[in-house]
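The following record pairs a protein chain with its ligand, S-adenosylmethionine.
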Amino acid sequence: MRVRSIAHVPDEIQMLFHPSTLSQLVSLQDRMSLLRGDDRFVYAVLLGILHANARTDGTPRGLTVAMPNTFAMAPNYVKQYIRVHRLKAPEVDVLDAVAERIESLEIPTSGFRRGAAWMQDVRATIAWPREKGKASLIFASPPYLQVMKYGKMNWIRLWLLGHEPKDVDNGLFTSASLARYREFMTAALKRMRARLRADGYVCLVIGDVRQDATTVNLAKEVADGCAGLAGLRVLEVLDDHLPVKHKVSRIWGETRGRATKTDRILVLGGPKAQRLPAYPKIDWSSANCYGV
Ligand SMILES: C[S@@+](CC[C@H](N)C(=O)[O-])C[C@H]1O[C@@H](n2cnc3c(N)ncnc32)[C@H](O)[C@@H]1O
């Protein structure tokens, strides 16, 4: 790949990468467009491998110095950490790493139905492709009362995509007010209902949150306070008790004590949706269950 200057790249990004790895990324940014499907796929793969923890020998699995794959720590914290622990950024052939990752995804070449995805505010009319007909199932995980700033915590991935974390966060819903949360969820569910078949389902993963000294069962709040207003029936609220060792937010010092402990799956149905059969029990001790 042609060598690209990295002089214009912000210092907080330069500190994370080996110059050769960064130069390749900048070159890819120049050549790829988010308007092209194939490029979007390569971007998605790159975002998945951009930062990750260390292998047992201490070398990073991702393209940056070792850090969690889930969210990126704050730039100043990372700067200090690199200095104190003398972290070294890996020299990686980016296209080889992308190819290896795609290989490991075992993407089926046939026998699958292509989905559709697009980016929008869930409060606006849902830009559902006309030719698709209405949905049988919508599966989503809405925000949980201001626990996370998704833009800020994805600042490295957003650099790759050319977005400002602040702009992203400004467009997202965050509020610690339960009343505003109910309004937000009612508006979102009304939008979804308009694109759902009468016998279709909406499943929402919603975690409990702590507010002051109490735990709020947010899934129940949405079931009792929003679903009916949006013309949806409550079919089930499944407890999804994830053993703490699997929980992504556990690795975050800053959110410890505030992070979600119990996730629930709220199952809603359109007016003609059938009741669900009994669901299988998940054995989290099984070797096939991975958190992070
Ligand atoms: C609990 S997270 C879900 C995470 C997701 N399940 C995943 O695995 O990445 C909540 C998501 O809601 C998104 N969000 C917040 N406000 C939104 C809005 N107004 N419209 C659309 N999405 C929004 C956030 O960007 C975040 O990705």
